[in-house]
Structures are given as structure tokens and as C-alpha cells.
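Incident review: delayed structure delivery

Summary: a single-chain prediction request sat in the queue longer than the usual turnaround. Root cause was a stuck worker, restarted by the on-call engineer. No data loss occurred. The affected request and its eventual output are reproduced below so the record is complete for anyone auditing the incident later.

Affected input:
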Amino acid sequence: KFGIIPALWVSLTIIGIIFGLYSAGKMSAIPFVQKGLKMSMAAVNGLMSMVFIFGLMPGAYCGTLMYSKCPNSWHFILGGVSIVTVIISLLCLPKGEDLKPYGETQRSILSGTKDVFAKHWTLLICGASLWGCANAVQMALNAFLTMHGYATIQQAATLPVAAAMGAVVGTLISPVMNRARFIFITLFTTLMGLTVALVPFICHSTVQVMSLTVVMGIFFGAAVNLNDSTFLEISQKGNFVGVGASLQSALLDRKSVV
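Output delivered after worker restart:
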């Protein structure tokens, strides 16, 4: 028999590959969407991030519900949702895209990665670190809630909803800070770190943790949108959107694991 542990690792690996493809695809598509909408890069990146977050909010709840109500068939439901997603994604064909053969594209990515990273490593590492820290904080807060008896596992699983609500607000307000983006990236990243440090001292209930999570989500959403949109603007002007998106996605996945 294959066994549950090997099957679990295979499933997690596939999910990781899918998330990596999503990240690279999203970042590559933003410049094309920006041309069509004629909005700032920060606004378009924020808009697409918000759509992703709006999908995460019901997804987090539905995933927990499926696991508890359909313990023997939840994976079939997710498989069906994935197939529908693939079919819809086939309709996403940005106008003005300069399609190139796969082999040629891969060679350009490999040759251009070193140069792009050397010139823009601060933006790349900053964005990936923000996402990685956000994932780590979310898991730590889940453990904090259950370990101290403030919430059940099912209740703690709704924590991403609070984080997503804050991230939406942060993403919405970030475009107006575009002119002083580097100051605000530093400010919001610092405030996010300070807020995390306060959790064990001022949070003694689920409501308090949820409230502080919303605040952290605001700081995170604003900082990451300003950072990522800045890199996208540079990659569009430098004509290395594909390389930049792939490198950004790879670093994001690595930082999430770390």
C-alpha cells in the first residue's frame, strides 16, 4: 500500500507546484492587465491580490467544513474545483503578449535570473520575506489560539479570514502612498513586526487575536503591494517581466518554506 504519509507529501508537493505556477502567472499577467485598464501598477497589483484574497476567505471556511463533513470525499470535491479552474484559465489570453517557444523562454530565464537578482535583490527579498513571515505568523497564531484554549482547531482555521480582511484594506489604501513608497514599505513592515511582538502580552481571547490579526493584515497588505508593484514597474520598463515573475515566485516559495 502507498500509505497515508507518502500520499500526503505527494499532495503537498503538487499543491506547492500549483501555487508556484499561480504566483509566476499572476505576476507575469499584471503588466498586460495594467495596459488594458490604464491604471497604476500598484492599483492593478492590489486589485488582483484582492480578488485572490476574496477567494481565500470562503476557501478557508469551506476547506475546514469539507474536512469535517466529508472526511472520505473532500479530495474529490477539490479535484473537481481544480478542473473547473483549469478550464477557466484557458480563456485567459492577454492581448499584446509576445509568445515565445518554451525552450527559448527557459534559456532566457536561466541566463537573466542572475542579472535581475543582482540589480533588484532588495525588492525581491523584501516581498518574499513579507509573504514568508505572514505565513509563519498565521500558523503561530493558530497554535497560540489552540494551545491556550482560546479557540478550537475549527475556530482557529478562520483566522486567515481576519488576516485577509486587513490585507484588503491595506491593499486598497496603498496606491495613494505610491510617491513615497519606500518610506511606507519600511514603516508598515516595522509596524507589522511590532504588532506581532505584542500578541502574547495583550491578547487573551479569540476576539483580541482576530482584531490584532486584522491590523497586521493592513500593514502587510500595504507593504507587500507597494513592494511588488514597484518591482513589476521596473521589470516592465526593463523588459524582463517573465524572468522577474519566475524569480519572484521562486523566492516567495522558498521564503514560505523557511
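Verification: DSSP finds nine helices and no strands in the chain.
Action items: add queue-age alerting; document worker restart procedure.
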